[in-house]
Amino acid sequence: MNIEKFLKLDFKGAIFDLDGTILDSMWVWNRVDETFLGRRGFLVPPDYLEHISTAGFLKAAEYTIERFGLNETTDEIMAEWNSMAKEEYAKTVGLSKGAFEYLGMLKDRGIRMAVATANHESLFMPALINNGIADYFEEFCTVLDVGKDKTSPDIYKETAARLGIPKDELVVFEDNNKAVRTSVNEGFFTVAMEDKSNEAFFEEIRKTADLFYPDFACLIKETTGE
User: Fold this and answer.
1) In a structure prediction context, what are the per-residue pLDDT tens digits for the chain, which is 226 residues long?
2) Do 20 and 32 lie in a common domain?
């Protein structure tokens, strides 16, 4: 895969991260973190999101218990997070700028699409349905499915295997610096999308990813030349 081939939509499949990439949802988690830790007398540390954003619910809960010395189970913590985020995902979370149009372009070209996410299906699926894009994706793979977070390439390898498309015909779309690095190191052509929650890592992401865009609207303009 090279940039010219990517911009001509001359590839067979695309693997999308959700939160901060397709879904404009990171504000939900900022609110959840502030509320959850605030109830326990803590402020959100500056590096907290960096540690949990690619981990999935279970590992994030384990990390939170250890870091803050909480006398709670992972199940209790995950249930509280899920309860706080559920209504927002079902009714309020929208799509990143240009995401709906870009996904439509890929669908029209017959490019097969899949999701690779650290989120839980009970949250993200209602958001995809509410925004009219759930049926765009053939496969939904989570870090829970592979048992490792996005610092491991397993989620991308498993998603590619489910699609049955070779690596050199796939594009991975991500926003997180750790996930971008993992995808690139595994040999996937990786397009990074700007997410303000990762602003401290923009320079690293720009150097690591094959391409880096402010949003999908900008990507569409470069793809169509309009």
Assistant:
1) 899 999 999 999 999 999 999 999 988 888 889 999 999 999 999 889 888 877 778 888 999 999 999 999 999 999 999 888 898 999 999 999 999 999 999 999 999 999 999 998 999 999 999 999 999 999 999 999 999 999 999 999 999 999 999 999 999 999 999 999 999 999 999 999 999 888 888 999 999 999 999 999 999 999 997 6
2) no
Say if residue 99 is in the same domain as residue 45: no
Helices (H) and strands (E) in the chain, counts: 12, 8
In total, how many domains does the chain have? 2
Q: Check if the beta carbon of residue 178 is closer than 8 Å to that of residue 197.
A: no
Residues 117, 16, 107, 99, Cα dihedral to 10°: 100
The residue ranges of DSSP E strands in the chain, in sequence order, are 13-16, 23-24, 94-95, 112-117, 137-142, 170-174, 189-193, 211-213
Determine contact, residues 211/3, Cβ cutoff 8 Å. Answer: yes
37, 53: one domain: yes
Is 133 in a helix, a strand, or coil? coil
pTM of the model: 0.88
In terms of C-beta distances under 8 Å and separation of at least 24 residues, what long-range contacts does 104-108 make, across chains too? 105/9, 105/220, 105/223, 106/9, 106/14, 106/136, 107/136
Token pair listed for 118:
């650290």
Q: Are residues 70 and 106 in the same domain?
A: no
Domain range spanning residue 170?
A: 3-25+93-224
